[in-house]
Structures are given as C-alpha cells and as structure tokens.
C-alpha cells in the first residue's frame, strides 16, 4: 500500500465568514419567526399557569407569576436556539439565508459553546435595559444603541465577528459552498 503524501491530500476550502448584511437579514428573519414561536409558548404558559385573557383584554402579570413567565420565555428561546446550533443543525432563518454556525476552528458547535453563545447574545439587550433604567425617556433614545451592542461590535472587529460569537468561539459562515 502506498502512503498518501501531505501534498497529495485534498485541499479543504476555508469557510468564508458570511457578510454582515446576510447575518443581519437572518437576524430579522429569525425575529419574525420568534414572534410566532413566542406566541405559541406563551399560550402554553397561559394554559399551564391558569392565566388567560378575560373579556378580550390581556392580563398584565405581576409578582412571582410574571418572573416565572419571563424565565419560561427565556428558557424556551434558549432551548430553540441551542437545539438548532448544536451538532451542525441550522435554524429556518439560517437555512433560508444559507448560513451555518460553526466553532472558530470550523468544527461543529457543542452544547457548552451554544449555551455560552446564547447567554452572550443577551449582553446587548441587558446593556440597553440598563441604559434605559439610567437614562429613562428624558428625550434621549441612546439606550436603543445598547440593544444592538453585539452588532456594533462587528463593525469594529477586524474579523467582523459579533460580540457573542467572539465570546463563544463561534462564527457564522456561508453555507452555500
């Protein structure tokens, strides 16, 4: 048997990081899908908790049930994304936009890395909420920029990586190849 030399090994094409526009388009697409997803999981929560709309008016949840609802929604969104991010699976938006999430080395994303990415994705919204609580609505909407901190990071990052991808050791690549 002959050995295959390193020079005879097939070349592997490098994975190209997807453009910011395509990643942002997939983000908007994902948000549209999440509205429907949250509607469904919200109905499940309302059914399980006994909370419902009375006389056609939505009830504003307060106290422990409101905290439980927020935790439920947070975990439901996390379960959705983490499920699709691990082991090479893709969300509907990523399939539509021909994108794929990979580890920095090009390998598949494991559960730990997916959880870190999901948690890091909330840095921007948490920053926006903190800014809103500090600034309020006194004629300034600067807090809105905090929400998109993860995206603004990509404009300054040399590799155009989002903050949450940089933290998690992941990147979004072009899957059209």
From the structure above, extract its key features:
mainly alpha, 2 strands, 8 helices
Biggest sheet architecture: 2 strands, antiparallel
Structural class: mainly alpha
The number of helical elements comes to 8
Global geometry: globular
Q: How many discrete domains?
A: 1
Percent range of helical residues: 55-70%
Strand content: 5-15%
SSE run? HHHEHHHHHE
Oligomer: single chain
As a whole number of angstroms, the C-alpha radius of gyration is 20 Å
Task: Give the mean pLDDT.
Answer: 83
Please outline what is shown here:
The chain has one domain (17-174).
SSE topology sketch:
Layout lengths: L19 H30 L14 H22 L6 H5 L2 E5 L7 H11 L1 H13 L7 H5 L1 H8 L6 H6 L1 E5 L3
Antiparallel strand pairs: 1-2
Helix pairs in contact: 1-2, 2-4
What does this structure look like?
It contains 8 helices and 2 strands, in the order H-H-H-E-H-H-H-H-H-E. The chain is mainly alpha-helical and 177 residues long. It has one domain (17-174). Strands 1-2 form a two-stranded antiparallel sheet.
């Amino acid at each position: 048997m002959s050995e295959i030399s390193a020079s005879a090994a097939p070349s592997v094409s490098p994975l190209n990081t997807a453009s910011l526009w395509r990643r942002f388009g997939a983000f908007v697409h994902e948000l549209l899908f999440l509205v429907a997803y949250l509607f469904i999981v919200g109905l499940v929560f309302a059914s399980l908790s006994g909370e419902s709309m009375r006389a056609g008016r939505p009830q504003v949840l307060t106290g422990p049930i409101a905290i439980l609802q927020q935790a439920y929604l947070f975990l439901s969104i996390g379960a959705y994304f983490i499920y699709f991010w691990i082991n090479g699976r893709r969300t509907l938006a990523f399939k539509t936009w021909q994108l794929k999430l990979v580890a920095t080395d090009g390998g598949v994303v494991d559960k730990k890395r997916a959880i870190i990415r999901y948690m890091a994705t909330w840095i921007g919204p948490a920053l926006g909420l903190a800014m809103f609580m500090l600034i309020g609505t006194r004629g300034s909407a600067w807090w809105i920029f905090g929400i998109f901190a993860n995206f603004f990071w990509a404009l300054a990052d040399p590799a155009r990586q989002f903050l949450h991808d940089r933290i998690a050791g992941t990147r979004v690549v072009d899957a059209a190849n």
